[in-house]
Amino acid sequence: MITRSYRHPLNSSRLEPGEPLLEVSDIRLRFGGITALDEVSLSVRQGTVHAVIGPNGAGKSSLLNCISGLYRPQDGTIVVHTPAGAHDLTRRKPHRIAQLGVARSFQNIELFRHLTVLENLMLGRHIHMRNRLTRSLVWFGPARRQELAHRELVEEVIDLLQIQSVRHKPVGALAYGFQKRVELGRALCMQPALLLLDEPMAGMNAEEKEDMARFVLDAHELAGVTVVLIEHDMNVVMDISDRVSVLDFGRLIADGAPEQVSTDPDVAKAYLGEEVQA
């Protein structure tokens, strides 16, 4: 069971539910003559699961790349709020953004395939490790105590994701569904206040999707993690999301509660390519 100590250090005094945690304002991202994001604005509230949906090529992954620092938008601002204040992410490097409590998974699995599940998860703790290299080379005293403390949190994540049986296996030898769990686990091991998930259920069968949705909700509810989720399965989106933002050709065309967005004619047109008759 994830404990209260799991929560990100900068989020230990936590924002109140409903307060803005992430604010994206008028983001514009261009690659040469192609505009990937065109004045996109949205607000993610503390304690919510916020889905970002849209057809292929709508700009969803580009948005997450801007938030996590992999891309730098030409215009606009991205601000994350912590109890210590507001932090502009727009020009920060990815590791600095991670230190503010922002973690992400990728659409394509990005794990170290030759390392074990446990070793991959321990890599998620690197931003919280404080010992100097000289101390870490000698595994006793502070270095030993630090690793044991980090290992304890990793064990919580292993239990949460029900991957105890594969903890010592190389990731490359695991089935696809388990690899997706490990990637989610590595992000969770960073103790994020904000978790960005890029199609965590892509390529899964119905049973695997159901399991992954439950794991995401468990992390959200038990650890107080706010989630931004890209997902194509509309049943999953409607079941677990508190709010949905819809992108189409890089523009935000709808933003609201799942039931509101699901009946929006602009959303139906984006997906179906035609007007929906009343």
From TrEMBL:
The record's annotation in Pfam families points to: ABC_tran (PF00005), BCA_ABC_TP_C (PF12399)
Q: Which SMART domains match?
A: AAA
Q: Which PROSITE patterns match?
A: ABC_TRANSPORTER_2
One Gene Ontology cellular component annotation held by this UniProt entry: plasma membrane
- Give the source's domain of life in one word: Bacteria
Q: Which residues cross the membrane?
A: none
Q: Which residues form the ABC transporter domain?
A: 22-274
> What keywords tag this UniProt record?
ATP-binding, Nucleotide-binding, Transport
* GO MF terms, alphabetically ordered: ATP binding; ATP hydrolysis activity
The molecule here is called: Amino acid/amide ABC transporter ATP-binding protein 1, HAAT family
Which organism is this protein's natural source? Haloechinothrix alba
